[in-house]
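Sample 3 of the quickstart, ligand pyridoxal-5'-phosphate:
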Amino acid sequence: MTTPMPDNPIFAVAARAEALRAQGADVITLAAGEPQAATSAVVVEAAVDAVRDPAAHHYGTAQGDPALRALVATAVAADTLLPWSVDDVQITLGAKHALFLAVQALIDDGGDEVLVASPGWPGHAEVVTAAGGRAVPVATDEEFRLSAEALDRCRTPRTRALILSSPGNPTGAVHPESRLRQIADWAERHGIWVVSDDIYRAFDYTGTYRSILRVAPQLRGRTVVVGGVSKEHAMTGWRIGWLAAPPETIASARLHVSRTITHVPTVSQRAALAALGDTGTPTGAARDYRRRRALLVEALNGIDGISCPLPDGGMFAFPDVSGLLRDRGWTSSADLAAWLLDTAHLAVVPGEAFQAPGRIRLCFAVDDHTLLSAIDRLKTSLGGAPANAAYEADAPTPEEAR
Ligand SMILES: Cc1ncc(COP(=O)(O)O)c(C=O)c1O
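Result:
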């Protein structure tokens, strides 16, 4: 038996918020890493049809429904400008499972290393550990981007792969073409695989998202493209993702799926099939998120001690709150997050979850009412004029709460 891994800290915040809610508190959450919207009706209808179809009640193929794989292949071809076929795609239980399968295919034993961005999404390091590898954090630059220099400082003879996520979580950083080319050259020079986690590709507010394979097609033989419907289609609970990769990686992933879960549930695959035919949902979501991103970032920058860059992509604001921590005498952003939750009933994720102690993460993939109420609570509790009077804070001061 191996030692159990600590659970993802983001889930810990969600659990604490849920406990407060159970006690009757009106908790607003910007902590979740998922769109608040319901899955679109067209997807739900397709799933209902699948539930009623006896063909969906029995075993399917380990690699996934060929019709879904064909749509994924077309989507990946559009992003990479390279040809992909149904054989090049494995359907998985969400993008995280795809990341795990990619890493377990690429590493040989417990000493093999995979580079992950820091700050970055803890799931990247978690899947490496779960696959038996060693996750090595690589410091990003002041714009939260990876560079060939920083990657090379962390490279050892055991380095097998790099997980690249652009747009990223929690930073929203999008790696421009020039940076992708530099990273690709470095990977090619040192024979390192790239796992390109493109889960936030649709939330690109500056039009700068590019698949690394579009910029560096010569990496095709050592790149795994990971995607899914979770974020673009508000389908986190349906658990559908995929990887598109060279044949030996797909063969390894298919074997692992076959030996562990047999295949991904057919009803969810049918739902994802409908989602991939619905281009309106991601486009509409990106339009709404762009507007909400501006509202939230402006509000955060209006609070003394907070400085928030405008993220180029993704679903999160990731402000520097170190000035506020200093002013209030808090030692970490976990103190701030706990205070906001307990006194303003507003859930955010402390930066410690992403190896960024002076920051917090706030999700703007929520509806307007939720976002405006959250902004009011931030302003009421931390300073600045409230946008409306919907929330009457009778919260203790930070000093009283400590
Ligand atoms: C960067 C990144 N990749 C992958 C995932 C996981 O996606 P899924 O829910 O499809 O497993 C997340 C979820 O937060 C994420 O932020």
